[in-house]
Design goal:
Blueprint: E1 2-12, H1 15-25, E2 32-35, E3 47-49, E4 55-57, H2 68-76, E5 81-83, E6 91-96, E7 99-101, H3 106-119, H4 133-138, H5 141-147, H6 152-167, H7 176-185, H8 189-193, E8 202-204, H9 209-217, E9 223-225, E10 230-235, E11 240-244, E12 248-256, H10 261-264, E13 268-270, H11 275-282, E14 289-296, H12 300-303, E15 306-311, E16 317-322, E17 331-338
Bound molecules: flavin-adenine dinucleotide (FAD).
Flavin-adenine dinucleotide binds at residues 13-18, 35-38, 43-45, 59-62, 229-230, 258-260, 263, 267, 289, 291.
Amino acid sequence: MKNNQTKYDVIIGAGFSGLAAALRLKPYKLKVLILEADDDIGGRSWNKVLDDGTIVELGGQWVGWQHQRMLSFINKYKLQKYTTPPFPEGKTLFQYNGKIIDEFPEEAMLLVNNFDNLTKEIDLEKPWMHPNAKLWDNITFEHWLEMQDATVDAKKMVGRIIAGGLLSRDTSHISMLQALFYVASNAGFDVATSSEKGAQHYRVIGGSYKIARKMVGDLKGTDIILNEPVTVINYDQECATVLSMNNNVYQGKYLIIAIPPVLASKIHYHPSLGSQYYGLLQNFPGGDALKVHFVYERLFWIEDNNSGNVYLQEGWLTEVTDNTTPSDPHAILTGFIYGKPEM
Ligand SMILES: Cc1cc2nc3c(=O)[nH]c(=O)nc-3n(C[C@H](O)[C@H](O)[C@H](O)COP(=O)(O)OP(=O)(O)OC[C@H]3O[C@@H](n4cnc5c(N)ncnc54)[C@H](O)[C@@H]3O)c2cc1C
């Protein structure tokens, strides 16, 4: 076991959250250490560069119109961005009731409106205070859909878009309260699912990973150690002692754990965090999503006056979107796979 003699003021994880936390601490001239399990910074923002230079983003890529903190980093670092989709005038297609149509089906829209009206009642600071919070927390989103007076097709479509498209989960894996809270925190269904003025408004040319790289460039004086997964945290009133999988030991006066809750639950804490808090971390699952890129020579969908955006009701892919970066040589459609192939 190697004991790092340096005493840090704060030790944190990496990814956008950890890097942003480190930047917030910069004015205080503290000795900050970032420990990162992976061999690179950036966490769930990750580029793959194809042989011809086309960049596909394997993780988080869209920056919403309302994502003010992310936008402030993009502006600060003078990164180029573009609005999506790249060719907005084309039609969006929907696979619905065995047919391909080019308008959001009215019966599904009615169901969305019923759901959206409920999201307006949610207090984002205290979602548990809603008079129906307990009831909604005790039923799954699937259960709520089943209870609605709507066609099976409408339920299937709305379920796949809200649970799959937005929360990367199956309708049976999220509570109704979670679905409402998530959509409410995105200012409603329309904003959550839209490109223009919605959560998918911008992409950064070169990928969101570029933001993380620039953040690191701004962190001169902060130690960053890669390939250093934290496995044990011993803490008391005075300091935290952190052990890594490589048997290294670090000490800091404070600790910020900027990793997904389910991964934070894999760390051994002494003293224990207590069953309630630990249970919360363990029961905070990430989404089950696969992001798939299809690379083409040309934008064939534009020739048919389509936008490249498709919502599918059957099969593994739930939605496909045009993910072509105007500056890249290739045309790209990106699809998402969540939950079950059919719901
Ligand atoms: C496929 C996909 C698509 C997405 N699309 C979008 C999108 O378009 N728009 C959007 O806003 N969001 C999107 N997201 C979500 C977005 O990427 C994340 O919310 C964001 O990157 C989370 O950043 P973070 O710093 O909180 O966590 P992370 O990025 O997960 O960073 C945590 C870091 O901690 C490290 N770590 C984990 N455990 C340990 C340990 N024990 N010790 C040390 N280090 C550890 C990890 O390696 C990682 O680098 C997407 C996510 C995925 C996976």
